[in-house]
């Protein structure tokens, strides 16, 4: 079995890139950009769906999509789930207003049913929200993942410079 081919980017960094041979091959960045699940470019404004009626939830949609586009994790495939998340938030707010109007001592059955619906909607919202970095724990995980990528990149550069120093001494 032959050895693995070096990536074009690595050859360019080392200065061993043969441009006549490599010019027709797409780079990794171009290949990723052509994928159908590509993320939205920064500063993209995503229109709020017509299914979302509440003024509060519409402003929440704008803030959430702006944040997800800024951290470069939002793709067109995510929009239906985000819409569902906002619809759940809208229903949750409606149930919350009903819930606050009910006196548990006077109408316990209605209070209990409303409470169950509220808990079910809250759980659905939390479950979907954790996918889109809404909770503080999820945002912390995103930050730690970014730091880990940076650290790995620094270690690779450090190893490459050590290897090139060793190879430079052999010539």
UniProtKB/TrEMBL annotation:
It comes from the Bacteria. This is Phage terminase small subunit. It comes from Treponema ruminis.
């Amino acid at each position: 079995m032959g050895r693995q081919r070096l990536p074009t980017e690595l050859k360019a960094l080392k200065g061993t890139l043969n441009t006549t041979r490599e010019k027709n091959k797409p780079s990794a960045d171009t290949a990723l950009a052509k994928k159908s699940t590509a993320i939205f470019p920064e500063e993209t404004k995503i229109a709020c769906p017509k299914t979302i009626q509440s003024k509060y939830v519409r402003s929440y949609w704008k803030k959430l999509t702006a944040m997800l586009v800024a951290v470069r994790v939002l793709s067109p495939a995510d929009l239906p789930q985000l819409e569902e998340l906002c619809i759940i938030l809208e229903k949750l707010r409606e149930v919350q207003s009903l819930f606050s109007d009910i006196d548990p001592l006077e109408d316990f059955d209605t209070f209990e049913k409303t409470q169950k619906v509220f808990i079910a909607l809250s759980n659905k919202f939390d479950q979907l929200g954790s996918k889109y970095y809404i909770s503080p724990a999820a945002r912390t995980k995103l930050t730690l993942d970014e730091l880990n990528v940076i650290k790995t990149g620094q270690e690779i550069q450090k190893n490459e410079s050590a290897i090139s120093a060793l190879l430079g001494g052999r010539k």
